[in-house]
Amino acid sequence: MRKLKNNELGRISVDEFKTTQKTPLIVVLDNVRSLNNIGSVFRTSDAFLIEKIYLCGICATPPNKDIHKTALGATESVEWDYVEDTLELVEKLKSENVKVLAIEQALNSTKLDKFYPEKNQKYAIVMGNEVKGVQQQVVNAADFCIEIPQLGTKHSLNISVTTGVVIWDLFTKMTK
């Protein structure tokens, strides 16, 4: 077995990305403070043709050298916007018939492996702050609260890891 070179991977250009049909999935970052996490979310969103990223609250925005360090150019391909108030954005998305999934550990949450997205439905996943998680008022406003089952001793996963797990799971279910 031989590792492939970058030019053998058959990746699309930024211009092609912008015109390619996207996965009906939006990522909302709720007060994510780490620029490396933000960059990583951009890179993962590029990999799975995510429709858009919303950066909310204290989130930094591109152009930024620390975001670029992990995004590796994905800020140029993935559409994004800054919105100050996460709750206002969630209400707006819901009014546009987007189902909002708060990714959080909560009473009566739905385990990710037990959640099945509806066909032809657009979803937004809300990822929270590294310490405080998704704001309670945003959890309250969400259509679903989704939790990644964990079996070890730690209380949570890093936000960029969590985003990758959730995007991969929903992408595979939505594209079957």
UniProtKB/TrEMBL annotation:
Transmembrane segments: none annotated. One of its GO terms (cellular component) is cytosol. GO terms for biological process: methylation; RNA processing. Keywords: Methyltransferase, Transferase. It comes from the Bacteria. InterPro entries: Alpha/beta_knot_MTases, rRNA_MeTrfase_TrmH, SpoU_MeTrfase, tRNA_m1G_MTases_N. One of its GO terms (molecular function) is RNA methyltransferase activity. Residues 25-167 form the tRNA/rRNA methyltransferase SpoU type domain. SUPFAM superfamilies: alpha/beta knot (SSF75217). CDD domains: SpoU-like (cd18097). Pfam families: SpoU_methylase. Gene3D superfamilies: 3.40.1280.10. PANTHER family: 23S RRNA (GUANOSINE-2'-O-)-METHYLTRANSFERASE RLMB (PTHR46429). This is RNA methyltransferase. The lineage of its organism: Bacteria, Pseudomonadati, Bacteroidota, Flavobacteriia, Flavobacteriales.
